[in-house]
# Entry
Amino acid sequence: MVPTSLRRRASTAGAVLLIVTAAVAGAIALMSAHSPGPMSAQRPPVTAPSTSPTPSPPARHADPLHPTDLELARLRAVAVTTPGHADRRIRGDATTQPDLYAAEFVRRLLTQNYQTSREQHLQWVQSEAAQTREPLVVGLVPHDLRDRLAVYSVTQTTSGPPPIPSPQEWRQLSALEAYTTVRIDRVEEPMAWSNAVAAGRITDLGITGRQVAATVTQHTVKDGRTATSSSSVALTLNLQGPPTRATWGFVTAVTYTSVPVTAS
# Structure
């Protein structure tokens, strides 16, 4: 279990990399035959506009098949989050099709109003959480910690900012009256995942992977002046759905990258 979000990673014996972000293939450890499993999410950096933005490198992912004591300790330290109100959950057609669910989940995940409660946003994530027994996704993550994977994967990283800012960053952005808007640009099943399924390496019939590309625009107000900054983000995630559960749910974020595009 890693500080980013334990990612399933193919073992040296021939395990396959679960889901990888095609757009950042070369930069992510997941993109090798030893790629990490689910628990290695990179979160969208939502920071105040900068005059000279620099790209955020993809977070490095740990190997969930061989988590270190430190990684397990960090996951264990994450408080169990109570699910949010059922009426805030994703509903309708989006829950019956993985592409639609992935798009709606990422849109809601990255749409953040920093003048509202961060905890409430985490509770929504937990309400969408689903679990899997797929070895290439959860690896050696202890059963008693798997209910923390969803929130852990969108709030913890070893490098680079996570999709959901830390409590301190959330407060700083709140002071700037900040909020974000999101446009989903593309949803696809990573080829590495498709190949793993075709090769019979995935044993859980309900697990799947998706890569979502989006444009995130952050709006802030400082000294009475409004400013915006946009970033191109890529988020890969694991979902669990039919036939093992009735509707689709979020298992864990695998990788997250954010590259600043414009600032005004």
Observations:
- Helices lie at 69-77, 98-110, 118-127, 135-138, 149-155, 167-175, 191-198.
